[in-house]
Amino acid sequence: PPSPPSPPSPPSPPSPLSPPSVAAASDAELRSLIEGATKDVSIFLAPGLHLKLSSQIRCSSNVKVVVASSDEGAKLDGQGRTGLFLLTGSCSLTLRGLAIVNGRANYDMAYFGRRGGVVVGVGAGDVEIIDSTVTGCTAEGGGVVFMESSGAVSLIDSNVAGCSADYAGGVVYARQSGAVMLIGSIVTSCTANINGGVIYANAKELPQESGAVSLIGSTVTGCSAGQDGGVVYANNNDAVSLIVSTVAGCSAGREGGVVYASRTGSVSLIGSTVTG
User: CA 190 → CA 9, 123, 127, 138, 176, distances in Å?
Assistant: First the structure.
């Protein structure tokens, strides 16, 4: 009998940057490409490039911006003086293969200027940080990412260390926004002086709510909150899930050494380990 037909070949993996990328070699070039974008744009930063930013790069159009590097990666440096990106107008941002250091919200500015050591999103789309390291970033709220009335936040296969918030969300602060996900990531020694040593997800009041909070295949160590939620503070949220993750040595000054949840969906630990 005739041989059965061969199975179809698997699809080719997607290009790491789509649409085709354009290169930027300076703060000015990166800023111009993003602030002038009227359609989706992918920007490649050469490995070893060190860009020292003096102010936030702003995106106010309904576009998707990808900033990526390869090999040892490029470095984006806030110099302890500024956050890196301000997103409005449904702009979405993906940061991939980068070393992100010393982002610091500008405490001399008004409300949103003091938020988001790396990214501030207000009426923004989604934010993704993939295959990257983030160190030494700080803000009043959202040591790395602050989102209000915006989309989802995903940290994927990334390492975050030594980031902090004076108020809430040592890594992510999400208010009335989409889901917050840590996937295959490592978070170490991140803190909030009040709530949510790693993630603060909150909606002002019912029936408004923020999306689900998920830690999947991730490790969180040595994180803390001065009051509630050493890892996660969730209020008026969808479910909180820790799935195949490890949490060690995390604490809160008042309630919820790992998770503080109020008026949320279910809280689940699935195949996860919590110690200390």
Answer: 44, 26, 19, 10, 23
Note the pLDDT tens digit of each residue in 109-125: 555 557 899 999 999 99
Can you give the three-state secondary structure of the chain, one letter per residue? CCCCCCCCCCCCCCCCCCCCCEECCCHHHHHHHHHCCCCCEEEECCCCCEEECCCCEEECCCCEEEEECCCCCEEEECCCCCCCEEECCCCEEEEECEEEECCECCCCCCHHHHECCCEEEECCCCEEEECCEEECCEEEECCCEEEECCCCEEEECCEEECCEEEEECCCEEEECCCCEEEECCEEECCEECCECCCEEEECCCCCCCECCEEEECCEEECCEECCECCCEEEECECCEEEECCEEECCEECCECCCEEEECCCCEEEECCEEEC
Indicate the Cα dihedral angle 64, 98, 244, 120, nearest 10°: -50
Structure tokens at 186: 């490592």
**Which structure tokens are listed for 8?**
């179809």
CA distances from 269 to 74, 141, 198, 273 (A): 36, 26, 17, 8
**Is the pLDDT at 95 greater than 80, yes or no?**
yes
Q: In what order do the strands lie in the sheet with 50-52?
A: 50-52, 74-77, 98-101, 133-135, 159-161, 186-188, 219-221, 246-248, 273-275
Structure confidence by residue, pLDDT tens digits, 46-90: 999 999 999 999 999 999 999 999 999 999 999 999 999 999 999
Residues 6+ apart with CB under 8 A from 196: 165, 168, 169, 170, 173, 225, 228, 229, 231, 232, 233, 260
